[in-house]
Design a protein that fits this description.
Length: 446
């Protein structure tokens, strides 16, 4: 592959990852990592050394656990517990629900497919032979999947609480070392005791308020499995709730308002408004007759015009189908529409080492998502003459969404925090909680 082609492919895949605010942690990771770097730079420039040290430990440490802890633990379970129980980690437990004969249909598709496109996947399709109503392995799959979700989430949450406490411990150790090096520090610290700390007084007013981010996650009993177990973004949001709750609980006197502000910015720009901002850009695109709802992998496809033309008949068939799932599996696996739907992330496919492709019967297919993608493909086909403008606006929308979050979390939030310190604490830009800790430890050592 030529270098320009590699660069183009990398750009498209990066844009695709950044633009998925529904079920991908990629935009979350990019926003978090870059905003953390920016935040630390802002504190280094306008705050003090304690801010830089504490934020470096806390932001990068919690960030690593937050983004990579759950996927790594789940992968370990896939490679150990699943094989030990003769279970296949590729199988989505949701397909075992036989509502409206769905599972029976998938079994028949897999068996028929073995003679056609599923030849290369025979080992996987044999797994279906283990299932006969009432699904002898159904409980095992559901149980192991639930265990994987719980153990990965709980263990990461526990590690995060320990890391936040470790950050504060390092600050206490730094204060002790400074006091030991210079006995005059006790007098220096004591001088702060006579200063009216307006900032701490202001924060004390909110001390008795019970602030909980746990309530920010709306858990509907019937939708819990779907919304949190199967969606990596929502799964990670549980960790964020734990982080926010722990930070508020463990925050020192004088910094609760700062912690609250920081967590509000994080939750707002990572979860709450990321998708609405994306929808706003898409609405702007529709107003300009530049449909950008589809994944960049589709929009930036080099042969998108030809593939859309080749897909017109299949799109019409699926949109008029009374049994969409059945019609999807009747598509030729090598068709342009299968490729486009797969690139858009709504149709799971699997390939063998020879490149033979088949629609996966092991994964859940969201029929509503497929219908929406079909409509978007129709819209794109109608505006294909403006494909260059569509590509440009799509790139602008994705980058704009990410940049807005980075600026808000990495620049605006710390600037507001430092402004509050100066405004409420007699012009001092230091963390009032650390100043208070120095007072307390200075008194002890005086």
């Amino acid at each position: 592959m030529a270098i320009p082609s590699i660069i183009t492919t990398g750009f498209i895949k990066t844009l695709s990852g950044l633009g998925n605010n529904s079920d991908s942690i990629v935009p979350m990771a990019v926003k978090d990592i870059i905003s953390d770097c920016t935040l630390i730079h802002t504190y280094k420039k306008e705050g003090d050394k304690d801010d830089v040290r504490e934020k470096t430990i806390e932001e990068f440490g919690t960030g690593a656990l937050w983004l990579f802890g759950i996927p790594i633990i789940k992968k370990i379970i896939d490679k150990t517990i699943y094989p030990a129980l003769s279970l296949n980690p590729d199988l989505d437990p949701r397909i075992l629900n036989n509502k409206n004969g769905r599972f029976d249909f998938l079994k028949s598709v897999a068996k028929d497919g073995e003679k056609k496109v599923f030849d290369s996947l025979s080992q996987k399709t044999k797994l279906f032979n283990k299932f006969e109503l009432p699904f002898s392995n159904y409980k095992a799959y559901k149980g192991v999947y639930a265990f994987k979700f719980l153990i990965s989430t709980v263990s990461c949450a526990f590690a995060l609480t320990k890391l936040i406490k470790y950050k504060q411990k390092t600050t206490d150790e730094r204060i002790k070392k400074d006091l030991a090096k210079n006995k005059d520090n006790s007098r220096y610290v004591q001088s702060f005791a006579n200063k009216e700390n307006l900032y701490s007084a202001f924060l004390d007013k909110t001390k008795k308020k019970n602030i909980s981010f746990g309530n920010a996650i709306a858990l509907k009993t019937g939708d819990f499995m779907k919304d949190f177990v199967f969606n990596p973004v929502k799964n990670t949001s549980i960790l964020d709730a734990c982080i926010a709750g722990t930070r508020l609980k463990e925050s020192r006197k004088g910094e609760k308002l700062e912690v609250l502000l920081k967590e509000l910015f994080q939750i707002m720009f990572i979860y709450v408004i990321a998708k609405p901002i994306q929808k706003a850009f898409e609405a702007m695109g529709r107003a300009l007759k530049l449909p950008i709802e589809l994944d960049p992998n589709v929009i930036f496809d080099a042969n998108i015009k030809d593939k859309l033309n080749a897909s017109k008949k299949d799109i019409e068939t699926l949109m008029n189908s009374k049994n969409l799932l059945k019609s999807i599996y009747e598509l030729e696996s090598s068709s342009s529409l299968v490729e486009l739907l797969s690139k858009n992330g709504v149709l799971p496919v699997i390939k063998d080492k020879n490149g033979i492709q088949a629609i996966s019967t092991f994964k859940e297919i969201d029929e509503n998502a497929v219908k929406k993608a079909l409509k978007n493909l129709e819209d794109l086909s109608g505006a294909i003459s403006s494909i260059k403008k569509i590509k440009a606006f799509k790139a602008f929308a994705v980058v704009g969404n990410v940049a807005l979050a980075i600026c808000a979390m990495g620049v605006l939030q710390p600037k507001i925090t430092i402004w509050m310190r100066k405004k409420l604490n007699n012009g001092d830009n230091r963390n009032p909680a650390i100043v208070q800790r120095e007072k307390e430890m200075g008194k002890v050592n005086s």
